[in-house]
Amino acid sequence: MANSYRELEGSGANYEEEEAQAWRQPSYSQQSQRFDNRNHNNDMSSNIKRMPDEVWLIPANVDAKKILGDKKANLKRIEASTNTHMDYNEEDSQIEMWGNRDELTEALKQWNTLAQNVLDEEIKRARAKKVKGWAKPEKELTEKQRKKLERRELRAAKEKEMTESQFHPRDNTLYKYNAHFVLPTNNEIPIAQFIGEKEEVLNPIRLDTNCFMWFEPTLNLIKIAGNEMDLVEDATMRVKVLYLKVVASRSIPINVNDKSKRNGWVYYMIDIPEIPRQPYRVRIANIPNWFMPPHDTNTNTAIKIFEPVRDGDVDPCTIAKENDKEYKESVDLETLQRIQIENSEGIRCALLQALGAIHLLDEEIKMRVRFGQICLTDYPKETLWPIDKLNAKVLRSPKLNSKFVTCIATNREQLAGLFEIVSQGEQHWEGSPFREYKIHAIRRPKTRGEPNTDCVFDVKFKNDNKIGLWNVTTAERNVLDINMACLDYVNSWNFSIRTAKRLSNDKFSPQGSFVYKLRLSQNNKLIYTNTEEIKVTSVCEKLKWKFWWGDNYVIEITRYEHWNCDSNKFKAISPGVEIVLGREPSESTFYGVTFYKDTWERDFAENCSLSAGRVPDWHPIDFIEEENSGGVDRLLNEIRNFLEVLQNNVSKAQ
């Protein structure tokens, strides 16, 4: 007990000594404790950060590096396009985001789309590289399975024999009726362009008529054989139509040497009204400051326009400087009337020629009248011309080149009067305005070594912002361009016919895969995603107001907004990443007016679905004689009347 007491007493003494020692040096102990607490708080504050407003987990079956992109380019792109702040948490394999709810929702959509695109590409590559493994040993067939296999093989053999006999029957004398289509001796068209490399173009005709047909190279003709006279005659006529289609299509001029010039037939004319306001000269003038040049024109190109010069407007020094007495002479009224008659007859012949060339095409056809300005890109050095000299020497020169600009206004306030005029009565189309997108893109070939091809998507969205009607075309071609300079009006007009070949709009094709990834942002701006097969080069958003006008004519007032998606800024974005056009500044925004007849649309719609060798119900002469007894003159009067409406109801840009 004594020892225990002494131990406790000793321990108490030690405790008292330690407490006394601490009391003697309070500053050191308190400072040390405060220093430790401060360090602990600093460590805590350095590790604490604001909790993210939203988190997106990177799917486990997708490589995080492909999601983030090179140097986190995809993360930076989505961060900038959604106006949010993002950080990659490598430890938890997630994207942490801060921002308001609407922007975070948009960011989540973009991350989900990107992940799905990356996963789709990985699955596609895996399927392409997939190698079949060891096959399982075949089981012995049952009697029922053996008979079924024999029937299948017998049916396949018969189908093969029938297919081969369709090309070249063993003995065509066994058939009641025989016919042939002889190719011209001076034929310059390759037979493959006419009937295909393996005569596949003839297959629909073989199927429809149940006739045999094949090409005899030694005789330079196509033979047709069958058991029914009507079907043989029909097949022969359809083969003839196929040949005429190729011949007519090859007649359309193609500018191979000069890419700056348009294909097709191009004409320039001056519109002379019945009662002219006596402009007797035309100046090739500089564009005014407010004028918007073509968005696809080189900035270094000097653009000129036609400008009327009236009595008293010409500086005498300018005339003297030209040093030519013909500039001092006024053009008489008879000359102006002769030019007007030549214009009418020239337009009629040009229409017949162009419509005859496209009559048999199984392509998309569009015929439009557009209002705007003729922008000259190649023109003579002389600036002042009498009308007759300009008509004879300049407008008919093959060196003259131009682009037509459809811009008649840069803001809607300028069109207030026009909207008021065309909206009178029940002329407004139901559902107008319509929002459409024209997307120019490059389509990569299926096989290596083949060149890329240009294609154009026309996409409409439904009211619920889901994909509506859409189509995709390629090989767009200009067939006819008539540029009419109207000296009595601010605007001129252009009459054009264009064709293009339609591609498949199957949902599971590369085109369909691209289209069904399109969507609209909250402010109705397009969001698109480049794929491995489709790369966008430009986008044009169109907002169209449609109105009936006169005798079944349609007036379209369109707001155009262009984006150039082929710049370095867009090229740096990897496929699969969504691009929000609402975050990118557009190159140009303007309003244009288009004029066409409803019957044109209905007639040309038939060509899109023409079978091989079939002929549409319309004929080129129908368009010329359509305007009751007035012909082309009636159409020109309708255009001139609407020009008067534009002149009086569209205010000039300041």
TrEMBL record:
Identify the keywords attached in UniProt to this record, alphabetized.
Answer: Coiled coil
- Pfam families of this UniProt entry? DUF7905
**Parts of the chain that traverse the membrane:** none
Xref: InterPro entries: DUF7905 (IPR057227)
Amino acid composition bias (Polar residues), ranges on this chain: 24-34
Show where the DUF7905 domain sits. 332-627
Organism this protein belongs to:
Gigaspora margarita
Q: Which residues form a coiled coil?
A: 101-166
- The identity of this protein, by name, is Conserved fungal protein
The segment annotated Disordered runs over 1-47
Q: Note the superkingdom of the native organism.
A: Eukaryota
